[in-house]
Amino acid sequence: MSLSERIKEVRNKEKLTQVQFGARIGLKQNTIALIEGGRPTSDQTIYAICRTFNVSETWLRTGEGEMYESKGPDTLGDYLKERGVTELEEEIIRAWMELPPKERRELLAHFQHRLANHGVIPAASSTAAEHEETPEERHERHKREARAEADELYEVILKEKMEQDDPETTFGSNSYGGGVA
To answer: Considering the entire predicted model, what is its pTM?
Structure first.
């Protein structure tokens, strides 16, 4: 099997079109078609394929050895079993990862505080709850801040408009029904 055939085999094993495969390694579809057709392949392209798809460079260049590099356990379960974790410990780890990030941080802060009080771990200068917020939390904070700023701006504009109508009237007076509805 030639280098071009092995490259095509990688693409087929990954179940990618030439367009998708090329996009993953930074090449256009027509270049992939030329390579698969036998055009000489640059070292840079070979490295990109190996790095992106975890393919053995030796296999890709020569056909010798295994197609894919050994990369350790394939799943969290395999990883945990290699370390002798019990089923209960695995369930706890999986349940932990299903918690929302904010709850995980709060629980970490709680345990950090409790363990530090018992002298098991040193007291930390910052708690786990003070760690960087998640993108979702940051988005929600930005929305709250934008709403607050919009409300403030609304009040300023409304006051200015009311004063334009009647400069003698102050914001919130009975002339306008006691303020903003």
So the answer is: 0.42
